[in-house]
Amino acid sequence: MTPRMILRILVVEDDPVLASPLTSYIAGLGWDVDFAASGKLALRFCAKTDYDAIVVDEAMPDLSGAEICNKIKAQSDTPVLLMTSNQHSEQMMSCNADDCVADPSDYREIAHRCQHLKEREKLPISA
């Protein structure tokens, strides 16, 4: 993947204090970013748009991060990055997240992992 590739990211976060700077950081990279403040809204976005990666908060008011992740994975193979306070949490173990990040305020790490997930998706499988 070239550094100039524009990724399309969905951020699923109900806390505007965390969501606003994260979406601003991602947009500042020149990437396209959508924001969903609920799990149900995230699933509606996913039904209409193909994302390169989806960043999901573990604790959401309507659906848990694991539920959101599992519903997304049942419909597509889009990589999901779970934001969790504990990388070995029950949420992480009970869903099909591709990766997790423990600090939702580390925007650089979140963007790096999104880019890595997209690159990993394109790697050919060989015997």
Provide an overview of this structure:
The protein is of the alpha/beta class and 127 residues long. It has one domain (8-122): Response regulator (Rossmann fold). It has helices spanning 16-28, 39-48, 65-75, 90-93, 107-122, and strands at 8-12, 32-36, 53-57, 80-83, 99-101. A five-stranded parallel sheet has the order 2-1-3-4-5, sandwiched between helices. Helix 4 (90-93) links the parallel strand 4 and strand 5 (99-101). The chain starts with 7 loop residues before the first strand and ends in a 5-residue tail after the last helix.
Please give the structural blueprint.
Blueprint: E1 8-12, H1 16-28, E2 32-36, H2 39-48, E3 53-57, H3 65-75, E4 80-83, H4 90-93, E5 99-101, H5 107-122
Parallel strand pairs: 1-2, 1-3, 3-4, 4-5
Distance between the termini: 22 Å
CATH homologous superfamily caption = Response regulator
Tell me the overall shape.
globular
CATH class: Alpha Beta
What's the average pLDDT?
87
For the sheet with most strands, the description reads: 5 strands, parallel
Structural class: alpha/beta
Radius of gyration using CA atoms only:
13 Å
**CATH-defined architecture:** 3-Layer(aba) Sandwich
**Amount of helix:** 40-55%
CATH topology name = Rossmann fold
Tally the helices: 5
What is the tally of beta strands?
5
Low-confidence stretches: none
Question: What percentage of amino acids are in beta strands?
Answer: 15-25%
Order of helices and strands: EHEHEHEHEH
Q: What is the spatial order of strands in the main beta sheet? A: 2-1-3-4-5
- Overall tally of structural domains: 1
